[in-house]
Every structure is written in C-alpha cells, then in structure tokens.
Here is the input.
Amino acid sequence: MSKIENVIIIGGGPAGLAASIYNARAGLSPLMFAGAPHGGQLMLTSEVENYPGFESILGPDLIEKMRLQAKKFGTKILDKNIIKVDFSKNPFEIYTSEEKYLAKSVNITTGAKAIWLGLESETRLIGKGVSACATCDGFFFKEKIVAVIGGGDSAMEESLTLTKFASKVYLIHRKDVFRASQIMQDRVKKHPKIEILWETEVEEVLGENKVEGIVEAGKRYIVVEDLISTGGSSINTINAVREKNGIVEYCIAIFTYELSKSKENFENINTKLMTLTNFTSFVKTAVQKKYIAKDQLNHIMDWKKNPEGWVAV
Here is the structure.
C-alpha cells in the first residue's frame, strides 16, 4: 500500500512554498508537487521590488530562496504535474502521469496562468519588456510607450493601471467590439493616454534584448517599448529621421506591396522621441527582420550629416 502523506501541496509558486514552510515547521513533512516547469509566474518575472525584505531581486532567485527554505524545514519537493485527483475517497488520491499518491489533506495552490499570444518572439522577450501583469511590472514602464493586447475586463484594468506610469498606452483588440463590462469600456475610451486599435492582430514582437516594436498583421509597424499580453504587407522602411538637441525623432512609414509589387503606399503613423542608442538598436533590429533593406541603412544614418533637417531614405 502507498504511503499516506500528512499533507500534499499542489503548486510550486510563492503560495505553495509559503504553505509548505508552515506545514513543515508544524512537523507535518509535506510533499509538494511544484509542477514542470516549477515556480509559477514569478519565474517569468525579471525584477521584483514589492516583496518585503528585498529592495530588488529577480523572480527566479526569489523562488529558489523559497524552495531552499522549504526544504530546510523538511518539505519534499517533486517537480511533477498532477493530472488527476479523487477527493471522494479517504485518504485523498492524487495522480501524476506515473504514480498514485495518498494524502490526509491537500492544499491546492495552483495560482493563475497568463494567456499568451503564442509567438516565438513574445516568448523570447518575456521579462524583457513582455509582461502578463501591469500591476507587477507597471513601475518599470515609466514614461514609456506600451501596448496591451485583449478586449476583456483584464485588458481594461491593465490599460488603466499603465496610464499611471506610461506616456502612452495602445490597447490592441482583434475584434471591433470589447467583451469587457460597459463601465470599464467607458473608462478606457475616455482616457486621454489610451489609443484603441480595433480589428488588429499582432504578428510579431520586435527586439533582440528588449521590446522595440510590434508588427500588426497585414498593416503596420507600431513602436512600443513594452508589451502586456492579456489575452500581407508589412513595414520595411523608415522614411525620415532627424536629430534635435541630442534626440532622434523619426516617422514610421508603411510599405504596402500589391501582388505585382508595382505599387508602394506610404503612410506616416507614428512619431516618437528616442535616444540615439535605442534608435540604432531599433534600426539594426528592423534590418535583421528585413523590415528595412540593408542598402537603406547608410541613408538612415545620414541624419548625423544633416542634424537640422529631415533626411529622406
């Protein structure tokens, strides 16, 4: 017969680890199933500045400290997923894909899971500008241009939270109507910092080491510095740049190719201030992603020779 555990804890994030420490110090020798991967959403967080006792700590480092503390007091941790439970029996039955476990009591601390877009570029930039929690990370977005993706109450709440920090918030929704409650919609639509982009889907998140922009499927390139996930033709050139008082100012243009590639339509869609370092990184990323042709790169950098005026490229 399988050993009957005093306590089984399902979930390996901060809540589960806190529960394991209390149970272990009570002498109950808890068994924790932390999941694979373990650690919960905190493992996707970069800097954590709102946890007591730490002015600043990386999310994964904080989880590791919690795990060590839990083990110190006698918690056994298995990084496995629970696929099934049966609470109609006593003792309770808990199943992994390989084995059945029995327990007198069970703590469920499975937390929440963000709904991502499923883009490779999004996954690569999680913690580097891509976030699933405005409340957690909004402080890091001070005076930045950010985008929120979604159309429900969560997207509305995240957008409104970010207005306290960001200089501008794009709210991107793939449909022409929100599903959020009416009162939340009204607040978002009236806020001067929020611009709603209807019937818009994000095709790619740009940037190598941080978010530098997003590509809207079939239409345009939107410059943002951070992206919050809540739920044809593409730009391939910058048509003008200029330097003023040490700041690069640029306009973004859309290249829309017909099937014959005989027509080109330009439309200025955004103007923004950016430091030279960020601008250079932005251009390099655009070239790597083939949104700007390589032979245009020197022309783009010609603003150095003519800092007082616009330089067409």
